């Protein structure tokens, strides 16, 4: 394993912003995925070109440097404007979690759409 100097991130840990629709961007940072507005409400800056602070989960508009919280959409600093819309904050691992089977005490039911171990498919 290669050591990363203090204050630096690995390339794979670097935040990524992708346009997914005309109105939404997907921000991937710190093991999270955030679906948020693609345009800054101040002057229409395109947030896909914004600077992302992965440690604080914030995005800064490239035009006038207005900063927004990526979990709530709240404007934190910069030009006075509305908050941005945050549609969803997702964990980085989107695997299907195990679900408890209410019919049996303490047993674990297979996730929907899966076959139990040893069962026919």
UniProtKB/TrEMBL annotation:
<keyword id="KW-0411">Iron-sulfur</keyword>
<keyword id="KW-0408">Iron</keyword>
<feature type="region of interest" description="Disordered">
    <location>
        <begin position="93"/>
        <end position="121"/>
    </location>
</feature>
<feature type="domain" description="Rieske">
    <location>
        <begin position="1"/>
        <end position="89"/>
    </location>
</feature>
<protein>
    <recommendedName>
        <fullName>Rieske domain-containing protein</fullName>
    </recommendedName>
</protein>
<dbReference type="InterPro" id="IPR017941">
    <property type="entry name" value="Rieske_2Fe-2S"/>
</dbReference>
<dbReference type="GO" id="GO:0016705">
    <property type="term" value="F:oxidoreductase activity, acting on paired donors, with incorporation or reduction of molecular oxygen"/>
</dbReference>
<dbReference type="GO" id="GO:0004497">
    <property type="term" value="F:monooxygenase activity"/>
</dbReference>
<dbReference type="InterPro" id="IPR036922">
    <property type="entry name" value="Rieske_2Fe-2S_sf"/>
</dbReference>
<dbReference type="Pfam" id="PF00355">
    <property type="entry name" value="Rieske"/>
</dbReference>
<dbReference type="GO" id="GO:0051537">
    <property type="term" value="F:2 iron, 2 sulfur cluster binding"/>
</dbReference>
<feature type="compositionally biased region" description="Low complexity">
    <location>
        <begin position="109"/>
        <end position="121"/>
    </location>
</feature>
<keyword id="KW-0001">2Fe-2S</keyword>
<dbReference type="GO" id="GO:0046872">
    <property type="term" value="F:metal ion binding"/>
</dbReference>
<keyword id="KW-0479">Metal-binding</keyword>
């Amino acid at each position: 394993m290669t050591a990363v100097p203090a204050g630096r991130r690995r390339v794979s840990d670097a935040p990524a912003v992708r346009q997914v629709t005309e109105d939404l961007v997907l921000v991937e940072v710190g093991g999270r995925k955030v679906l948020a507005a693609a345009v800054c409400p101040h002057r229409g800056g395109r947030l896909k070109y914004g600077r992302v602070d992965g440690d604080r989960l914030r995005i800064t508009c490239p035009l006038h440097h207005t900063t927004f919280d990526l979990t709530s959409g709240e404007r934190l600093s910069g030009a006075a404007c509305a908050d941005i819309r945050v549609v969803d904050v997702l964990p980085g691992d989107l695997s299907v979690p195990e679900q408890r089977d209410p019919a049996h005490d303490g047993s674990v039911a297979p996730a929907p759409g899966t076959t139990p171990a040893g069962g026919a498919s």
